[in-house]
Structure formats: C-alpha cells, structure tokens
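Troubleshooting entry. The earlier prediction with zinc ion gave an output that would not parse, so I re-checked the input for stray whitespace and re-submitted. Clean input:
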Amino acid sequence: MTTTERALLTESVHATLREQIFAGELPPGAALSVPALAAKLNVSRTPVREAVQQLISEGIAVYTRNAGAKVDVVDDETIRAVFEVREVLDGLAAHQATLRATYKNIEDLSVLVVDQRALLDTPPDHRRDARMDLEFHTAIRDIAGNKPLREASTRLDGQAHLYRSDMWTIEENRRIAVDEHERILAAIRSGDAEGARSAASAHVAGLLVRTRRK
Ligand SMILES: [Zn+2]
C-alpha cells in the first residue's frame, strides 16, 4: 500500500468513526478499542489507531490510562465553556471575514442562508439543520482565512456535537437561527466588521442558551 493509499484509508476510517459518534451509534463514553474497531470495519489496526488519535486531537475522544480511548462526554459545564470560546472566535471570524470577503464569497453565504430559510417550510431534521448551521459558520471562518482560528473552531464544534440537545427539533429555534444568520450576513455585506462581530457573538450566545434550554 502506498503512503497516499494509507492516508486515504485513515481518512475514510476517521470519517466513518466521526459519523458513527455523531449519530450516537458510538455514544459518549463508548470505548474506542483499536482491535475491535479494526475487526468491525474490516481494516488493519494502523489506520484505526491513526484515526482514533485524530479524534483525540479533535476533542471528540479522550485517552484514559486504564480504559484506552473513549468517546468524550460533554456535560452542561463543558458545553457552556465551549460556547463561551466560540462566542469570541466566531465574532472574530465574522469581523475578519467582513474585511476580506469578495462579492463571490458574499453570494455563496447568501445562498446558504436562502437555503436555510427555504427549509423552514419543511419538517425539522436535527442532523441536517445542525449540519447546515455548521456549514454557514465554517464558510465564514474560511473567508476569514485564519488557520489557528479555523483549527480551534473545528475542535469546539466536535465537542459541541457530542452534547445532547433538542435545540434543532424546536420550530422556533430554527427560525431564530435563520434570522440571526441573516443579520450576520447583512453586516458582512455592508462592510460593517464590528456589526458582524457583534451579530455573530450574539448568535452564538443565544445558541448556548437555546442548546441548554429544557
Ligand atoms: Zn448558526
């Protein structure tokens, strides 16, 4: 197997495990045993070991001395801390994106928000709606073009994904999120970097409250 083939295999194992974790098939606290997963996925242990390492570096799995790697557990306290950092980082991303965005970037963001608005007429789909929300934020971070910010955000997103919440199943929360995305987009479009920062921070602060609301 060439180096490229091995890297592709690791990437594919990593994507599969991530998906199973976020779908709850590998729930928080589940053991990530390299031999067991290699047998289940019918691949050798090396790509599984590398994929699990990657999950650990992404904050999705943790390594415990006695029990090996496990899917991380994100409790109320952790999710609050995660969103507090996201509030600052997504504010910064929106600020930098405003200063750097091209007409094409703005058009692409606009398409995402229009799609989200259109989907409000269809029943909620927790996974789709969470994915589309993430897509919007990832697009802004990409436009911001700040690599450390992008990496830190990916880690926070992984952890946020592990937290069980009914947020995206509540009709009202879906509408509020689209309204907030439109506000962020309007500020970016008009070139108001400070306005984009405060709109993005306010959106994330609201997401935290709605994520934890019982
Ligand atoms: Zn959002």
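This one parsed fine. The pocket of zinc ion is lined by residues 133, 136-137, 177, 181, 203 (CB under 6 Å).
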